[in-house]
Structures are given as C-alpha cells and as structure tokens.
Write a structure and sequence with these properties.
The chain is of the alpha/beta class and 313 residues long. It folds into two domains: 163 residues, 3-Layer(aba) Sandwich (Rossmann fold), CATH 3.40.50.2020; 141 residues, Rossmann fold. Helix content is 30%, strand content 26%. The chain has eight helices and 14 strands. The strands form three sheets. A seven-stranded mixed beta sheet has the order 10-9-8-11-12-13-14, with helices on both faces. The chain is globular.
Length: 313
Amino acid sequence: MNDALRIFACNSNRALAAEICDTLGLALSPLEISRFSNDNLHVQIRDNVRERDVFVVQSFTEPVSDHIMELMITLDALRSASARRVTAVIPYYSYARSDKKDAPRISITGRLIADMLQTAGANRVLTMDLHADQVHGFFSVPVDHLTAIPTIAEHFRRHHDLAHMVAVATDAGGAKRVGRFSERLGIPMAIIDKRRVSDTNVTHGEVVGNVKGRDVVIFEDEISTGGTLLSTIGTLKAAGVRSIHVGAVHAVLCGPAIDRLRDAPIESIVVTNTVHMPPGKRLDKITQLTVAPLFASAIERIHSGESVGALFE
C-alpha cells in the first residue's frame, strides 16, 4: 500500500480496525487517548499524518457519547496535524435511528451528529447498513454506505437448505432491506404488521405472507434489546412456522438482549463484527461474521480513487 495511507482506531472496536489493517498489510497507526483529572478526554496523534490520507475507525457503541467525543476530538487533531484527507469510518452509526421528528420538541439527532462530524474535520464518511436510508442524505460530505447483506446471505446459502426458507421483515419499514436479502438468496419474503408503542415496547399483528410449515429467517439491521425479535417470534410461532433463524448486521445486544436470545426458540443467529462482542455476550447459537475485508476493500478503493459501489455489482 501507498505510504500516504494511515489508519487509526479509537476505543470502540479496535479488533475490527486491526483486522482491516491486517487485510491491507498495514500497521495500525498509534493513537493515544487518555483523560485529564477533570475527566476531559485527551487525544494525541502519535504518527506523522501531514499530507496523508487518513481513516479513523470508531463505532457508536456503549458508552456512545464517550465514543462519539473520542472520534470528534481525533478528527480535529488530525485536521490540526495537516492530514490531507480524513475519513471517519463508522461501522455502526447508532444515531441513524434518530432520523425523523416523530414527537414534539425533539432533535433529529442523526442529522446533528452528521453536522458535528464535518465540523470536527471529517472530509468523508464510510459506514455500513444505516437504520434508515435517508440518513445518508443528512451528510454534506461524501458518504460511502456499505452493506453486509451479501456477506450474511452467503452464510445462509452455505449452511442452510433454502428450499423451504422465507425471509421475514419485522415491520413494513424493514421490507426494502429484507427484500434485498431475500432476492440475494432467491427466497420469498413475508412482513409482520408491527405497532411500536415506545422505544422498548412493540406489538405485532398478522403475518403478511405464507410462513406455515416453513423455515424462516428474521432479518434486521440491528439487534438492540431483542424486544422486537421476541414479539416477532411469538407472531411467527402462532402462524405455524417450522424453525426460526435470525440475521442482523449490528449485534448491539444491550439490556436484556442476551437473556432473551438465550431463552428464545431461535436455532441460529448470524451477525457481523461492526460492534465489538465481549465474551459475556457470546452464545453458542450466535455466529459472528467479519466485515473487515469489505471495509479494507472500500478503504483501498477510496484511497486510490476507484469506485466503492463496484464492490456490490
């Protein structure tokens, strides 16, 4: 690789960043993140970045606010150090869920964070499977929006009999995403009629589509508390499905998610490593796929001025 390329990692998912560097044959550039006695963050770039093409890897995971501030300060430090171009690599952009004004007097925080990234010094953004496609439009800098759908679909193709499988969307909002997944596998899809009562409380109605006696794979962009999955499973069981599998890009797994998934009648769960998964969250039924090669290819193409979209053609 060209000596002009540098990759740094903040603290949210250093394992993914290291794997990206291994794929590219690069060493992860040194970055020092510490705190002053008053709890303020301190970031120092420990490599020469003058006129370099720089990428910073940071997912917005718990503690989300700390990780966002780490990234913002790092971007500003890189700009001050005369980096030629700075790309924020955000495998999981959690605030994409805040994409509309669905209650009085609230912030559309997905747009706010996008503005903050540019102000801090990001010249472009590289991310994966945003919760809502319209969040892409919140950025006024170039955005490369990757998807793990082909990666997860290929796993199901290799390890499951697709003859009786149906892809399921947990609500109408996810139908487009699940449609791409089902088309990739050449299987039919179904949609659940969902009503969201609050952030953690959803109710489900009927299944739109034929799932009786079929193997189903519920496909989501992320698994958060697992509440949506549980209510979806109840609806599918009542509809007479034969077996239930789950595919999701971002394994956030917060709150009661692990206990819920452990006890749920799910045969397999396939996720990616956009979010770091500590040992306490690793269940036997969970398979974690790596998206490091995909991010590495995208970084290489951005650096050399090639098309990123061609990765999915």
